[in-house]
Design a protein that fits this description.
The chain is of the alpha/beta class and 272 residues long. 39% of the residues lie in helices and 23% in strands. Helix 4 crosses helix 5.
């Protein structure tokens, strides 16, 4: 189960004369892709175009070959699931279980199947025993996890996570990273918007840099994070471990501490 999403020369504005996206062309397929950039770079607007909440002013968005202009948001929701940055923009039910079953029910699953999917998704994000609670009685981190569970329960072939690690502790970040890794291994199309460069480096094989509504760079994570000129232009920093390697004049860009240690060992063995 996979999805291919194509953006072809997409332009978008909310106010005429004030462009938000300018000529964005991208093809997004199976695997984990991170979209990074400063606030106002156009990232959240771009992903709302991918699931039909917004339509391009010009250019086109294709989901598995179908133009989003010809599809309803409801029909696109069968393929593209979006977790909003702010959970308050997404939550609307008075019980967690009703929130998480809403999507599967609208996809045609029976009540029993929908609840089974909901409970599995809640367990996947580490929420236990909250099914009957009001989402707004939960903290921000837990509310965010409820919205993630809501999308996981739908089983869409493409999933978009807008700032998934917001308010999460170390255990929560690790759990979300595992979810991204599992979705990637299952051949799903995963798109992550994040300011957490360490999370991006560890879990996303591809990185797209947005700046002022344009694609500034697009490549594998190591290649993008080895370009301080590009990152500086986008007002971003590489992950800590990549910055350390650069400071030590290493000829490769590690993305995780484990990779860094391996490079150091090889460097030492080569000099002995």
């Amino acid at each position: 189960m996979s999805a291919v999403i194509e953006a072809r020369s997409v332009h978008f504005h909310y106010t005429p004369g004030v462009p938000v996206l300018t000529g964005v062309t991208l093809s997004l397929g199976p695997g984990a892709t991170a979209i990074i950039g400063q606030n106002g770079a156009g990232k959240s607007t771009f992903v709302r175009l991918l699931n039909g909440l917004l339509k391009p002013v010009s250019g086109s968005i294709l989901v598995n070959g179908a133009d989003t202009r010809s599809l309803t948001v409801a029909s696109l929701a069968r393929t593209v699931g979006l977790v909003f940055q702010n959970p308050s923009d997404q939550l609307f039910k008075s019980r967690v279980i009703d929130e998480v079953t809403f999507g599967p029910l609208n996809l045609g699953f029976s009540r029993e199947e929908a609840e089974e999917r909901a409970r599995e998704a809640l367990a996947q994000v580490g929420l236990h025993g909250v099914e009957t609670r009001n989402p707004y009685d939960l903290g921000l981190a837990e509310r965010k996890l409820v919205t993630i569970a809501s999308v996981l329960a739908m089983g869409t072939s493409a999933l978009i996570f807008d700032e998934p690690t917001i308010a999460q502790d170390y255990a929560g970040v690790r759990r979300l990273g595992k979810i991204v890794d599992e979705l990637t291994a299952a051949g799903r199309t995963v798109i992550v918007i994040s300011h957490d460069m360490d999370f991006v480096a560890r879990h996303c094989h591809r990185v797209v840099v947005f700046s002022r509504g344009r694609v500034l760079a697009d490549g594998d994570a190591a290649s993008v994070f080895s370009r301080p000129d590009i990152l500086q232009q986008a007002a971003l920093e590489a992950p800590q471990i990549a910055r350390l390697a650069h400071a030590l004049s290493m000829d490769q860009t590690p993305l995780t501490p484990e990779q860094f240690v391996d490079l150091v060992r090889r460097r030492l063995s080569g000099s002995s």
